[in-house]
Structures are given as structure tokens and as C-alpha cells.
Amino acid sequence: MNDVVTDPITENDRSWEEVVRVANEGSVEELSELLDSMSVAEQAYVFSHMEDDAEAVVLRRLPAEDAADLIGHFNESEAARMIQLLESQAAATILQEMPIDEQADVIGDLPEKEAEAILQELPQQNADNVRELTAYPDNVAGGMMVVEMLRFRSEMTVAEVIDEINRGAEHYTDLDVRYAYVCDDEGRLVGVLPMQNLLFVKRYRKLGEIMIKDPLSVRTTAPLEELAEFFESHVYLGVPVVDDDGVLKGVLHREAVQYEEVRAAENDYLKSQGIVGGEELRTMPVWLRSRRRLSWLSINIFLNLGAAAVIAYFQETLESVIALAVFLPIISDMSGCSGNQAVAVSMRELSLGIIRPTEFFRVWWKEFTVGLINGSVLGGLIAVVAVLFDGNPYLGVVVGVALCLNTLIAVSIGGVVPLLLKRFGFDPAVASGPLLTTVTDMCGFFLVLGLATVMLSRLT
Amino acid sequence: MNDVVTDPITENDRSWEEVVRVANEGSVEELSELLDSMSVAEQAYVFSHMEDDAEAVVLRRLPAEDAADLIGHFNESEAARMIQLLESQAAATILQEMPIDEQADVIGDLPEKEAEAILQELPQQNADNVRELTAYPDNVAGGMMVVEMLRFRSEMTVAEVIDEINRGAEHYTDLDVRYAYVCDDEGRLVGVLPMQNLLFVKRYRKLGEIMIKDPLSVRTTAPLEELAEFFESHVYLGVPVVDDDGVLKGVLHREAVQYEEVRAAENDYLKSQGIVGGEELRTMPVWLRSRRRLSWLSINIFLNLGAAAVIAYFQETLESVIALAVFLPIISDMSGCSGNQAVAVSMRELSLGIIRPTEFFRVWWKEFTVGLINGSVLGGLIAVVAVLFDGNPYLGVVVGVALCLNTLIAVSIGGVVPLLLKRFGFDPAVASGPLLTTVTDMCGFFLVLGLATVMLSRLT
């Protein structure tokens, strides 16, 4: 089904010129109001279309809290790009208004030098917290958790807790206060306490007596797949995150895991298309975009030479039967298409957990049967085309048999390669495509030209 | 960064043989217990590895409620496959235990005949509700909403509402009861009522007086992008869904939108790899998988013939300078890689809403600058290779200039094509790739062979 074309912004367009004008001529209140009146999508659109200088003016003029809100709406790479427009002190002032985990997301996306400069400007405790968080990869619990939460020691009484909450009421309203977490003197998680329970118990009781003991938790190092599985199997909206010693480090919300799942799926798509050096947006500098894309392209051109070498090896055959040159790119492209389909299905089944990275034979057999049908159909089609084109039935046999066999090879490799890569710790989304293309091109060219060499007397 | 290899299942493996054994020899209780003890991932793995007959035995032996729970854990295509293993009456008995929206998801994934047979077996009201829901596409509010909710008329008093809730307590505990929705006599949404407010008001008051009036709502036809934007801009966990007349049709939860976002991103990846006829899992029958893949491949083979025709047109040039045949597949593949990178960035920017489908020129210019750098580098590289391979500097000039120019063409087309397709209501994830490949192949072959024809005297 085609996506419905919708552009809810168009009807109510506010051009970036208006934001620039108000930033330069209006009051701070007008600027805040104008930005507040925009949807998140409008803000993202406007800031991706403004000149860098104009963006910096807006960020500098806004109260730090409003600027933090604004930047918090954008995805991490866009937020990092905007923060880099400011001097490190101004950047630090804005970042301080964000929750620690969001600070870490943005700072983690900055080049090391810029990140360090901003960390220097942050208060020591804040900087240390950010440093601890940026050490975790984005796709493990430590990289997705929030670190601000209600955390109390088990000897505290209900009265003490209520007192503390009341004193910090302003701060706590920003947090997800469904649960409080109870720790021992070493900071180890020993219990959780649904907040509403505080209302139903005597005020002199200690948390250690009324908490739910031995609560479920996940490790800081738990990977996305395990966390997705956790939230699929449990109805909780959040789960405490602990380190190897059981010390409470943060809280992971269901929503953060879902957000990361969207990102992982989007990244798989980007990587399969050759965007592998990190997110690219056209607001980034040309040299950076060019360099990242080239790193991928240069590996591919090198791999392509391998396939070209096969053609070079059979140059004499090609010279005798020049019609073969017309069919080489078709064989290469069609095998690539068939193989990519098999790659995609393996990636899907791996992500659903319904195949394991060790089930080579099962996957190969399931691909072989489909490849046999599709190879025969495609081989038959191309054979007919070759005979119509050249008049020589043997040319049809050569290209038809070659495409049929190479389809079988392509789906076999395409199905199994993602499992192998995964099994040995590589990222199948990045590496499957080029590996597949190289091998199927080499095999395809070898099959066409090898068969032609054997049947050369019939072809000329 | 490489994905961490984790396979939480392996340590605690329960082979599908055990499930089959217990299904055949154990009691119903043992079977329920065994399945209950498995994580969702284990269940998915086990049922994708059992024989169809064995799966059917398990589903028939389980109490309908447990079978519904089990099937509810799987994704829609897998659930639909399992339901098809049963006679329509048994299938209907199980489906009835699911919420209406899940029933609709599964039935919507069945072939029309099977779907109709099951609908016949469902109670009339239930079947009508399912029919209404299956009419919505998956990616609009109507296709994602739940239809079971607390809904009261505005003339009702608080006492009547509390009474009704108490009578249906068992049913209501399954629902998300944070809000009740208030409708007029025609079913039009007129207010919402946070449930806890019922506790603080006099029991004789009418809902119309105490509800929040004119609540936010979304249309049944609102597309995914608009809904994602809604939940980005508002903190609510759910929003009422109304039809064009304002009649309350269901409630849309934030989680359902996020789930659909994951699915959309996964589908973009699958479609870009040529899985376009609907989800494919290797548990599906070979003929179905083969047919769906072939529909895509046969379009591609046809498009490939266009590019091959360009080579055929220049056959004489090729015959004179056979070394050109070695470089044709490289030009084709490298241009495809460069173009796909541009496609991916456009898809990403479209999904982030930071470009609009009308901004051809902006996107083209941003691509042109990168293409100029990358084309020069790649063209230079391939020129050096050609000279080393053949010894003739003019061959280097021909393939180098051709690859440079064709890289510019590829990134221009790759950047703009997704916008054009989107603008005119086509799905850019499906169609961008083949369109791009065909045009860049034709241009690439034309450039190499055309240049070679012009410089033929220098090349031979």
C-alpha cells in the first residue's frame, strides 16, 4: 500500500525567515512564544533550514531552559550539530537544563574535543555523571536509562520519605514517580515501592519493611534485544538498572527501549544502503558527508575489482562472443536482487528471534527451494531474450543456465551470510550487502564466461 | 559499532520436541505450564520450528484463552499463519478470547476466503466490529486503535457510572482505565474524565458537568506521521479516536504508535531489499515466498533489459576495445552504491520531517556538492586502475570521466527520486531502488561507451 501523502505543516507554514526576524528584532518573550506555538515537526523543519549564524542567535537569545527544551525535541545528531554552533560555555549553560541522560546523548554525539570543552564548563558532579553515561553504548540498558529517580535507603521511615519528597517537590514533579527505589548502604538495590503505597501505611514504618523485596532488574550492559524481550514478557512501564555488583544505576523506561528499536530498524535500513559511518543529515558539512560516504564506496570499488578480474581473465572468450557483454550486467544485477531478498528475510527472522545464528542448514535449505523455482523462471526468461537478441540458441543456454545457477548461489549466500556475520560478532546490516554482491558477481561472471568458453565452438 | 552477540535462549533451551511430547502425552495443565514457563522469544522460536500438525495439536489442546494469549505474543503474519492451521470454528473460538483490535489484526492478515469463514463463526456483533476495523489500513489511527474502553453518556451521574463499573469490574480490569470517555446521544465525543476524579466529586453530579470539555482527539484516518507528531508534542499515553462526524471510535495508545513506527522502519528496510509483497517468513509455503519474490524480480529483469540495450547499441565499440567490458559492471555497481546512499539520506530526512517532498532543488544541490567530490575521487581511482590494466591512458580518461559524471547523476537522482515518488503518492522505499539502478545503469553505459566511441581512434 502506498503511504498516504500528508504534509500537515504546509497549511500552517511558518517560514524560518519569521523566526530569524523575531530573533533579531523581537523581544525574548515574542521569540519564546513563536517557538512554543510551533509543533515539534515545524521546529525541526525550521531549524534544518536556517543559516548556522541565525540558529546560534536564536539559541543565545532564548532563556537556557527554553533552548534546552527546543534542542531536546530534536534527534541526537541534529541536537549535537546545534550545540556545536555555540561557544562551550553557552552550550554548557543550556545542557545543564536537560536531564543527565539527554545531556549524555548529545555530548556523546559531539567530536571528542568539543565534548571535553563543554564537560569542562559543567559543574564537576554533573560532568562526572555525564562521563559515566557516555561510556555506555547507545544500545545497552546503561545507554538508554534515566539516572534521576526517587531513591531511598531502607532504614528510612515513611515520614522521612514524605518529608524529603515535599522538600524537593518541584524537582520530583519532572520525574516518573510511579515507583521509588530502595537501596542499602552500598547503593545496592534491595526493593521497590509503588508510590501510592506510601499513603496506606503508618508513618513510623521503615521502607525495608513495606517495600517489595528482590525486585526484577536488568544489568547496565544488557543489550537491546534482551531489553525488548523483557518488556514483551512483562507489563511494567519501567525497570531498575543495576551494575554487576547490584548497585542501582538508573531506571529504564519501556518507551526508551521502543525508541531505540525504531532507531535500530532505521539504522539497518541506512546501513544496507551504504550510510555506515553514522547518521547523515544534509545540514552537516559537505566534507564530513563526503568523507563518510567515500569510506564505504572505496571498500566497494576494491571489491568490484575482484569481479572485474574474472571478466578480464575471460577476455578472449568475450572478444569472440561480444553479445555476452550485453548480458553480464543483467546477471550481476539480478543475482544481487535475489540475494538481497534472502538477506532481508534472514535479518527479519534474526530480529524476530525465530532463527538462531547457528541454523545455517535450515536457512540454506529454505532458500534453496525458493532459489530453484526463481532461478528456473529467471533463467528461462533471460534465455528467451538472448535467443531473440542473437538468434543462437546456445547463447540462450549459456546465459539461462548461468543465471539459474547463480540465483541458487545468491540466495544461499544471501540467506546464510547474515547468520555467519552475526555468529562471529559482525554487524550483518553493514557487511551482508557488499559480501553478497562481490561473491555473486564473481560467480556469475565465472559461470557465464566459463560456460561460454566450454561451448565456444557452438557460439561463434 | 557491532551488535553484541547475545542469545539468551541458548543457555536455557527447551526444544520444540518437548512441547510436542507434552502436547501429545501430557495433561492440558502440563502443556499450559510448560508454555507459561517460556519467554515470548522462546515461544516464537519453538513455534517457528514445529511441524504444522504439531502446532495445530498444541492450539487445539490448550484452553481457548491460553491459545489466544500464546498467539497474541506473535507478530501478525505469524499469528495468521498459526490460525490458518485450524478449522474455522476452532479458530473463531480462540480469536474470540482476544481484544477486538487484535482479532482484526490477525484476520486482516488472512486470505479473504479464510477470513470470511472465520467471521461467519464469530458472534454477529463481534464479527461486525472486526469487519469495521479491518477496513482501516494498518498505518492510520483506525488501524492501530483499541475499541474496548470506558464510554459513558454525559447525562449519567457519578453514582451510575461507579455502579456500572462495579458490575463489569472483571471486564474493566483488562482495559486501560486511566480515562473514561463521555459521549452525547449520537455517540459523539464531548469530554474526557480522568478516572480518579470520580473519587472527589459528589455522587449526584452528572458527567457533563465534571468532565474536561472539548478534549483533544485524532481522526480515524490520521496517518502514522501525524500520530507520531501528536505524541511527540503531547505527553498523553493515549488519545481518543473519532470519525468525520466526531463519533468516538476507539482509543489510540502511544505504545501502538511506537510499535507501528518500528514496523514502518523495518518495512522500509525490507522493501529496499526487494521484499515488497508483504512480510515473508521462512515458515510460509515455498510457492507463496517464491511468487512474491518473483513479482519483484521480474520487474527488475525487465528494467535491466533497458540498460542492456545501451550496451547492445554500442556493440561495435565494445568489440574494438574489449577492455571496456571489464569496467562496465564496476561503473554500474559503484553508481548504484552512490545513488543508494543519497536515497537513504532523503528517506531519513523525509521521515524526520526536515525536508518536504517539494524541495527538489535544495536536495539536488546538497547532493551535487558531495557528488562532485566523491565522483572525482572514484573517477580518479578507476582511471588509475584502467591505465595500469591496459597501458592506454585514454582508457583511463574514458572510464574515469564516465564514473565521475555518472556519480553526479546517481546522487542527483538518488536524492530527488524519493521526494518525487512521495510527492506523487508512491512509496519511495519500494520504487526508489529499481528506478535509480535503471537510470544510472543506462547513463553509465552510455557515458563509457559513448565517450569510447568518440575517442575510438585513440583507444585502439
UniProtKB/TrEMBL annotation, chains A, B:
It is a multi-pass membrane protein. It holds the Pfam family CBS. Residues 145-210, 211-269 form the CBS domain. Homodimer. NCBIfam families: mgtE. Belongs to the SLC41A transporter family. This is Magnesium transporter MgtE. It comes from Roseiconus lacunae. The lineage of its organism: Bacteria, Pseudomonadati, Planctomycetota, Planctomycetia, Pirellulales.
